[in-house]
Amino acid sequence: MKILIIQQKMIGDVLTTSILFEALREKFPKAELHYVINSHTFPVVEHNPFIDKFLFITPEIEQNRLKFLSFSRTIQKEKYDTVIDVYGKPSSILMSAFSKAKKKIAYHKKHTSFIYSHAIKRKSTPEYAASLAVENRMLLLKPLGIDFKNIQPKIYLKEDEITSAKNYLETNDILLNQPLFMIGVLGSNPSKTYPFEYMAKLIETVAQTKNAQILFNYIPTQEEEAKAVYELCKASTQEQIHFDVFGKSLREFLAILSQCDAIIGNEGGANNMAKALNIPTFTIFSPYLNKHNWFGENEEVQNVAVHLSDYIDLQASDVKQAKKQSALYYEKFKPSFVKSKLEAFLSTFSK
Question: Of the residues 3, 72, 218, 251, which has the fewest C-beta atoms closer than 10 A?
């Protein structure tokens, strides 16, 4: 049996969809399992023992119709028995159609259902206390006789990567026997970014943890914004922040993250990666997002997620408005709301 899963675009999506391979391997130990992903997302699934082969969509393939057509024909030549299209956009629909697999599985959409042998309707409420991101993905395996399994995404690091990260941190005067916290200072866009002034106040709370050492998660193009948050912190807190310590690649970042006691900050890929490394997370969700999409009750043992709706009543109309006027709704999401939960979360990390 030969199975292809298609999941393009975001790193968090590619990581979450990787749970399907573990479930498939358990059900079909001799199956050949392939994964179509964007090339830049590979680091989060590198060394995954359940995936036999990766097919990479490069920027060149995305931007050139002839190259994309050639890529789709490559899929056709693989002669897959089953294709699972998790992405469900024009590019993946075309790949699915080209595959000529007997079983083609995707989420139900009126205008594309005829392409697939199985069109699965998403659930809107979690049934097994997992996130909707996990539960809805597991639904795609039903046509293959696989029921829900509580599988969480996992990132696989090599020993030399971990050793290199430890050496890098120690070279930069970080004590690995003292609490080390990563701060997700920025979201993927302004509508997913907790106000800088509010974030600085939460960082002050983190800094009060005995012997706390703090890292900022940002990429070089975000340095100016990250610096703006840093400048809003007290001078004493700034001394605890190792601003220039960060991974130069995604794998380096993951190895550094694996040495942290926790990550605190905006919802996004970094928090999902931390969970996949079994690192505790304290996540601040944007007011317009549904917290249950990316956070399940079964994660509450070591993870915390906060949303404006946890503190004030929000109507459906508020959620729609929050996407258009994120700053207005973020202003209501006071650090004082979050502080006690954050302090309780941090209390377990004193060394």
Answer: 72
CB 215 within 8 A of CB 183: yes
**Can you give the pLDDT at residue 63?**
95
> Both 133 and 215 in a single domain?
no
Query: What pLDDT was estimated at residue 84?
Result: 99
The Cα–Cα gap between 185 and 163 comes to: 26
The number of domains in the chain is 2
Q: Is residue 149 part of a domain?
A: no
CA–CA distances in Å: residue 78 to residues 33, 54, 69, 81, 150: 11, 12, 15, 9, 31
When pLDDT is averaged across residues 128-136 and rounded to a whole number, the result is 97
Identify the helix (H) or strand (E) that includes residue 35: strand 32-38
Q: Which residues pair with 213 in a beta bridge?
A: 180
Cα gap 156→251, rounded to integer Å = 10
30, 150 contact by CB (below 8 A):
no
150, part of any domain: no
What is the DSSP code string of 23-70?
HHHHH-TT-EEEEEEEGGGGGGTTT-TT--EEEEE-HHHHH-HHHHHH
**Sequential DSSP letters for 183-218:** EE---SSGGGS--HHHHHHHHHHHHTSTT-EEEE--
**Could you give the 3-state DSSP secondary structure of residue 106?**
strand
Domain encompassing residue 63: 2-144
Quote the Cα angle for 245-251-256, to 5°: 40
pTM over 0.85: yes
Determine what percent of the chain is predicted with pLDDT higher than 90.
Answer: 93
CB 99 within 8 A of CB 4: yes
CB 219, CB 187: distance < 8 Å: no
pLDDT above 70 covers a percentage of the chain that reads 100
Closest CA to 37 of 65, 16, 66, 22: 16
Q: Which one, of 60, 21, 67, lies nearest residue 40 by Cα?
A: 60
CB 267 within 8 A of CB 283: yes
Please compute, for residue 264, the number of CA atoms within 13 A of its CA located in the half-sphere on the CB side.
27
Assess contact for 259 and 277: CB atoms under 8 A.
no
Average pLDDT over residues 337-350: 94
Query: Please, what is the average pLDDT of the chain?
Result: 96
Do 180 and 101 share a structural domain?
A: no
> Does some domain include residue 202?
yes
